[in-house]
Design brief:
By secondary structure, this protein is of the alpha/beta class. Helix content is 31%, strand content 28%. A hairpin with a 4-residue loop joins strand 6 and strand 7. The N and C termini lie far apart (49 Å).
């Protein structure tokens, strides 16, 4: 893994390798990199996974098995901008399956508790429209949804 740019470190109790495999299975342009293991005398049994470097959708991550001290919360989330409803449906389904939790306004938590925003790539233009009425209608529509529905957002934006 190169040192250019940013790498996001995700702290897990003991699921780092499982989580890395999970994310790589969901996103294109993804791969597993170096896996480091705890040595003798470390806080975890020698040979168990310490870190897993991986790339998901071209973004660099390190999954760390650090213990139960820290957990994920909604203060940090990853945004997935989607070109169409099929893509929204895909990510929503994959990230909420097997214990994930749907949330409001396109937000969800995956089975590890990591927060994601699955949104249409045109959402910022709809809710940020210079016409305050159009923006307000689109925003109200978004706020009423769990998984975002592009057609409904666009109808609200247009005043239909």
């Amino acid at each position: 893994m190169t040192t250019d740019g940013f790498t996001t470190c995700l702290w897990f109790d003991s699921q780092a390798e499982e989580a890395a495999d999970y994310y790589v299975s969901i996103f294109k342009n993804s791969s597993i990199g170096h896996v480091a293991r705890y040595p003798e005398g470390a806080p975890r049994p020698a040979g168990t996974v310490l870190t897993v470097e991986f790339t998901a959708n071209g973004h660099k991550f390190v999954a760390l098995n650090g213990g139960p001290e820290f957990t994920f919360n909604e203060a940090i989330s990853f945004q997935i901008f989607c070109a169409d409803q099929e893509e929204i449906d895909y990510y929503w389904t994959r990230l909420t399956e097997n214990g994930g939790e749907p949330g409001p306004c396109g937000w969800l938590k995956d089975k590890y508790g990591v927060s994601w925003q699955v949104v249409p790539d045109r959402l910022p233009g709809l809710i940020g429209d210079p016409d305050p009425e159009r923006a307000s209608r689109a925003t109200r529509s978004m706020l009423s949804m769990g998984k975002l529905d592009i057609a409904e957002l666009e109808k609200a934006h247009a005043g239909e």
